[in-house]
Structure to design on (839 residues):
């Protein structure tokens, strides 16, 4: 227990978050664009931090769904930096092997995509992800709508210097502890 | 050589069970200058005091040390006792061996050692004491109440009823304040105007009250008992001596500007009464919007007035008045939420109104004659969202404090909507519901029974969609996001101190807290006084509060003022700063540092060699000085010293402890 608390304290310190600043008003969750898909809402993450339940945070899908849009911290009356907490929680979850398989696949496909085109190719991203994650029919129904409205394209977007982006990512891979 | 007597108190067992009097008393007897030492079970009791008095005459004692409880507890008691003896009351030192020794230590031996040290310090200090004499200052039997809201009205009436003269000063054209704007008051749902306007009329008619509306304080000088206040009467452009308040002048004025009283929900002419029940019930001309005053073209009101009251050449005048006491009752204003909350539209959506605007809306004398209608299209709303804590409990964008009254008036607003609009729905978004008052919890319960839906969560965002307002937040008890489509939104916004509080408190020398509310002298034991003698507090200028608390505080402040004005003169503490003019270089460092504005520079005649010169030296006003000692620490030449706590006396104590 104390070991877990130390881990939580270290994580919070790194994120620059004091868990007792939060008085659970829920303004973060109220504005969160991803809240509906999260199994633990942003306010719940703060509650877990207050009661010392690090494991619930790390095993939640919340930390992987957070887009880091900053709406929660912008509106928080106490300026609690939840996106930063989510970021640190993602590192901790990866270290402890809690990373979700689907999140891992998405990250890998995304980076591979960047290496190929220098920019994200949505169609390929969705296709590859669905194949590898064995969800081949997911999102199929929305494909016609997205294609006809120009929301995704069949052809990848062109970039001026995709080679340099590729080199950049490879350097990052070598330098950082991020396992892709 | 001084002849010191030391008296050790057992305080029953409070002191004696830890500090050993049988060691302390003999040790005291050996200290330099001590001619007599004794101990007793209760020094403060009648026999204890008699024992001290007898010893003084018997042993020729000229100064005493009493080792007992804190000086806060019984220093005054023993000073009073000394008045009947040959010794000056200030030839006394208290060694606190209870609160600072026996109560906080368990080790008897070491506690006794410490008590001996404390007594040794007091003995050294008292050897340097000098007789001090209190001065008495005369008291002007007249009070000034600044602010004509319910707090000022109540305080003025109480003081006037006690037989003292009062000037009630208000900067708006009418008294009444915020309470006059409210529709009903929680938790009894009394009509606000029905209970406040009779008091306003009483103020106007009271023989002891002089009403000064449309006036502002320009400067304050003096001190408790004799304040000199310069009051600026703003130009009214209407001769109130002959005006009967018939109201004819207002009818044809071509100017229409936003009504302050209705918070922009209706218009008023340039010549206007603040509201129909205004006291005094006579109009003023708003010089910023009057065409005649701006461009010299119009003059309709002057032509209409049957008595010739209109005087476009009227000018502001300043009068100086004397007062013995001042009550601050300057009240509050609501925060400018639109400037703080972009996520609530920042003022773009007309159907988001403040709680006070709702009060005007629901009031029968208001712009909609009491019909609850949306400002945008005048339709009755079917769904209303009430958002609490807008600007309150929000250290980032607003105020960190709770505004105290909003929980209750939010419940009242919900009740009024559900009562006036059958079939309507009301959602109240809250973080906590706070109802600590008589009948308050019951009122909240009733509102929930009425059908108001309380949702625990702070609204995150409000946006317009298809002519409605979508309020998005979290139902934090369910743990899920909610969206409510509302026709109207009421924001219960935070209170903040009235505009101008900084200038006024600086003039008086009264302190403000971190949020600019006026600081009380002690949060529990002196809640209606400021730390400036003779300046008292009533109502929300001290912090957010509701009407019952405001009225209680106003009466309490009035009681303090009456007590003061009942005396014809009062004694001041002689433990104040004194200037040694020879040492003073006139640098003025003390003038700026004095929190009570008690020090001024005074020109004196002096000699420099054979030459006669004039130079400036510090001069301490004994009525204003509170003996804090800040100036003595700031003084570069050591010219300032605090009587009763001279630097020499304190160093003597330090030496006694360390050498």
């Amino acid at each position: 227990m104390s070991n877990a608390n130390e881990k939580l304290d270290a994580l919070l310190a790194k994120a620059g978050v004091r868990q007792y600043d939060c008085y659970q008003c829920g303004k973060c969750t109220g504005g969160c664009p991803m809240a509906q898909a999260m199994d633990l809402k942003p306010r719940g993450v703060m509650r877990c931090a207050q009661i010392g339940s690090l494991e619930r945070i790390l095993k939640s899908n919340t930390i992987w769904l957070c887009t880091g849009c900053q709406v929660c911290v912008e509106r928080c009356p106490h300026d609690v930096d939840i996106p930063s907490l989510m970021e640190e929680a993602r590192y901790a979850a990866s270290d402890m092997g809690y990373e979700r398989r689907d999140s891992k696949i998405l990250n890998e496909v995304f980076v591979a995509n960047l290496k190929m085109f220098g920019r994200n190719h949505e169609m390929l991203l969705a296709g590859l992800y669905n194949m590898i994650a064995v969800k081949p029919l997911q999102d199929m129904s929305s494909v016609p709508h997205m294609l006809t409205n120009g929301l995704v394209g069949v052809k990848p977007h062109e970039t001026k210097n995709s080679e340099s982006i590729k080199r950049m990512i490879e350097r990052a891979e070598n330098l950082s502890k991020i396992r892709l | 050589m001084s002849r010191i007597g030391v008296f050790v108190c057992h305080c029953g067992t409070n002191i004696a069970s830890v500090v050993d009097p049988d060691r302390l008393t003999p040790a005291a007897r050996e200290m330099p200058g001590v001619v007599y030492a004794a101990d007793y079970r209760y020094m403060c009791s009648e026999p204890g005091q008699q024992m001290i008095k007898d010893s003084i005459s018997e042993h020729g004692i000229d100064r005493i040390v009493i080792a007992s409880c804190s000086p806060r507890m019984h220093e005054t008691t023993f000073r009073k006792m000394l008045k009947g003896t040959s010794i000056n009351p200030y030839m006394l030192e208290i060694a606190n061996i209870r609160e600072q020794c026996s109560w906080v230590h368990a080790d008897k031996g070491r506690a006794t050692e410490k008590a001996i040290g404390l007594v040794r310090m007091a003995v050294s200090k008292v050897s340097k004491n000098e007789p001090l004499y209190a001065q008495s200052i005369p008291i002007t039997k007249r009070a000034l109440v600044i602010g004509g809201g319910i707090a000022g009205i109540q305080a003025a009436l109480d003081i006037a009823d006690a037989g003292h003269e009062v000037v009630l000063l208000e900067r708006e054209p009418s008294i009444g304040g915020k309470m006059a704007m409210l529709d009903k008051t929680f938790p009894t749902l009394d009509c606000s105007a029905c209970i406040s306007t009779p008091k306003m009329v009483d103020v106007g008619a009271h023989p002891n009250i002089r009403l000064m509306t449309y006036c502002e304080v320009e400067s304050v000088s003096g001190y408790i008992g004799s304040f000199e206040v310069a009051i600026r009467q703003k130009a009214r452009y209407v001769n109130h001596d002959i005006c009967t308040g018939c109201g004819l002048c207002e009818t044809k004025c071509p100017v229409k500007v936003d009504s302050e009283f209705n918070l922009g929900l209706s218009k008023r002419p340039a010549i206007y009464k603040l509201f129909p029940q205004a006291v005094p019930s006579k109009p003023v001309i708003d010089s910023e919007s009057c065409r005649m005053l701006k461009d010299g073209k119009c003059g309709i009101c002057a032509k209409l007035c049957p008595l010739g009251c209109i005087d476009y050449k009227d000018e502001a005048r300043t009068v100086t008045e004397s007062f013995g006491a001042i009550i601050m009752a300057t009240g509050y204003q609501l925060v400018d939420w639109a400037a703080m909350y972009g996520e609530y539209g920042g003022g773009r959506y007309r159907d988001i109104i403040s709680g006070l605007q709702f009060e005007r809306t629901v009031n029968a004398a208001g712009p909609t004659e009491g019909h609850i209608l949306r400002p945008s299209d005048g339709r009755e709303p079917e769904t209303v969202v009430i958002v609490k804590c807008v600007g309150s409990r929000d250290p980032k964008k607003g105020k960190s404090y709770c505004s105290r009254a909003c929980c209750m008036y939010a419940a009242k607003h919900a009740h009024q909507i559900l009562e006036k609009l059958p079939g309507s729905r009301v959602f109240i978004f809250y973080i906590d519901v706070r109802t600590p008052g008589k009948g308050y919890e019951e009122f909240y319960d009733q509102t929930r029974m009425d059908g108001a839906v309380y949702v625990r969560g702070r609204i995150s965002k409000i946006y317009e969609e298809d002519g409605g307002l979508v309020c998005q937040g979290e139902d934090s008890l369910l743990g899920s996001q909610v969206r409510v489509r509302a026709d109207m939104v009421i924001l219960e916004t935070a209170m903040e101190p009235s505009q101008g509080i900084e200038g006024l408190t600086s003039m008086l020398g009264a302190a403000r807290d971190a949020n600019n509310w006026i600081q009380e002298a002690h949060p529990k034991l002196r809640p209606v006084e400021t730390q400036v003698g003779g300046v008292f507090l009533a109502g929300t200028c001290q912090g957010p509060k509701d009407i019952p608390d405001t009225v209680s505080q106003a009466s309490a402040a009035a009681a303090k003022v009456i007590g003061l004005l009942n005396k014809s003169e009062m004694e001041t503490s002689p433990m104040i700063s004194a200037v040694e003019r020879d040492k003073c270089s006139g640098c003025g460092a003390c003038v700026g540092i004095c929190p009570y504005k008690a020090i001024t520079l005074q020109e004196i005649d002096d000699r420099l060699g054979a030459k006669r010169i004039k130079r400036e030296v510090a001069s301490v006003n004994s009525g204003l000085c509170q003996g804090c000692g800040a100036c003595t620490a700031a003084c570069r030449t050591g010219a300032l010293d605090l009587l009763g706590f001279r630097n020499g006396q304190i160093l003597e104590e330090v030496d006694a402890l360390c050498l």
Notes: Chain A touches chain B through 21 residues (CB under 8 Å). Chain A has two domains: 2-95, 101-175. Residues 101-117 of chain A form the longest helix (17 residues). Chain A is about 60% helix and 0% strand.
